[in-house]
Amino acid sequence: MVFLEVEIGGLRYSNPSMLASGILGVSEGLLRRVLEAGAGAVVTKSVTLKPRAGNPTPCFVELEVGYVNSLGIPNPGYREFLQEIKDLHEKEKIIISLAGSSVEDFEVMARAVEESGFPVVELNFSCPHAKNLGLEILKRHQILFEAIKVIKETTRLKVWVKLGLSDNLLEIARGIEKAGADAIVAINTIRCLLIDIYARKPCLSSIYGGLSGKAIHPIATRCVYDLYKVVDIPIIGVGGIESWREAVEFILAGATAFQIGSGIAKEGLDIFKKVIDGLARYLKDNGFSSVYDIVGLAHK
Ligand SMILES: Cc1cc2nc3c(=O)[nH]c(=O)nc-3n(C[C@H](O)[C@H](O)[C@H](O)COP(=O)(O)O)c2cc1C
């Protein structure tokens, strides 16, 4: 018998697999389908204070090693989105991803999330291709730390913070933990550029995009491994999971849970069941009885 249950910020999840933000998490029906497919939790598409149309096409390219997108966080705004998903049961399994430009943006949206009965927010400070959001905001760390403090002081929400690849990742992570965050999610897509050699110009309308999928898994694993050395709050690994093996790698590197995004495009929603079953088998075959037996084991 192996136990797959994990606890993050005092909330329990039946297994450590989660849907990553921006992939399918745009409607009540899709979120429900991912939970039915076996995910322990689902993260919604990031929403913003005001509706956003996103970037014009072309904004998505498939590569052999993953995907490049520059969607630019298209969403109907937090109010309409919360209305769309208000009837979902099992609200404790639904994590609302918020992207904002100021402490006030996050404060207003977080209050509405709490009023709608959802207990967890994931703050997206890592989108590499949205103007005035994500990575651009992260350059001003103070907004991030203040946003965490304000949400923790004014609501009972659990706060997860999603980070991207940056030179000062570990310094920011320490600040996030000090500010009171309940978990760190790492990583978002990695800023990149594709050039159309015949048009002789960048492929994407917004020039830069974010790389996801298989190619970023070893980089994400490195981030999780390094984060584990500097913070005590749970880490949730994201990037390039296509099978249970990458999920096990994340956990051995120090993650308590993991999220799956691009892998769904290849494997379909069955990926959740395959990864969970594979993880359970790995634990059993190697004489472990719980996910916690192997969290960070690669450091020993
Ligand atoms: C099409 C697409 C849209 C995404 N939208 C969001 C988003 O709205 N918010 C966010 O935090 N991350 C977003 N991401 C990043 C993913 O959540 C994830 O961090 C990244 O894709 C790496 O995981 P993967 O390799 O499993 O896809 C998006 C990724 C893709 C491919």
CATH homologous group name: Aldolase class I
Proportion of residues in extended strands: 15-25%
In what order do the strands lie side by side in the largest sheet? 3-4-7-8-9-10-15-16
CATH fold assignment = TIM Barrel
**CATH class wording:** Alpha Beta
Q: So how many helices?
A: 10
Question: How does CATH name the architecture?
Answer: Alpha-Beta Barrel
Helix content: 25-40%
* DSSP strand count: 16
Give the helix/strand class: alpha/beta
Number of domains: 1
- The rounded distance between the terminal residues' Cα atoms is 25 Å
Shape: globular
Q: Kindly state the mean pLDDT as a whole number?
A: 95
Instruction: Tell me the major beta sheet.
Output: 8 strands, parallel, barrel
Poorly predicted ranges:
none
Order of helices and strands: EEEHEEEHEHEHHEHEEEEEHEHEHH
Radius of gyration: 18 Å
Structure description:
This protein is an alpha/beta fold and 300 residues long. It has a single domain (6-50, 73-191, 213-299), classed as Alpha-Beta Barrel (TIM Barrel), CATH 3.20.20.70. The chain is built from ten helices and 16 strands. The strands form four sheets. The chain has an eight-stranded parallel β-barrel with strand order 3-4-7-8-9-10-15-16, surrounded by seven helices. Helix 3 (103-115) links the parallel strand 7 (94-98) and strand 8. Helix 5 (141-154) packs parallel to helix 6, helix 6 crosses helix 7 (217-230) and helix 8 (244-253) crosses helix 10 (270-285). The longest helix has 16 residues, at 270-285. It is globular and about 55 Å long. 48% of the residues are buried. Residues 20-23, 45-46, 67, 69, 71, 73, 97, 124, 127, 162, 188-189, 212-213, 216, 238-241, 260-263 line the site of flavin mononucleotide (FMN). The site of flavin mononucleotide (FMN) has 27 residues, from strand 6.
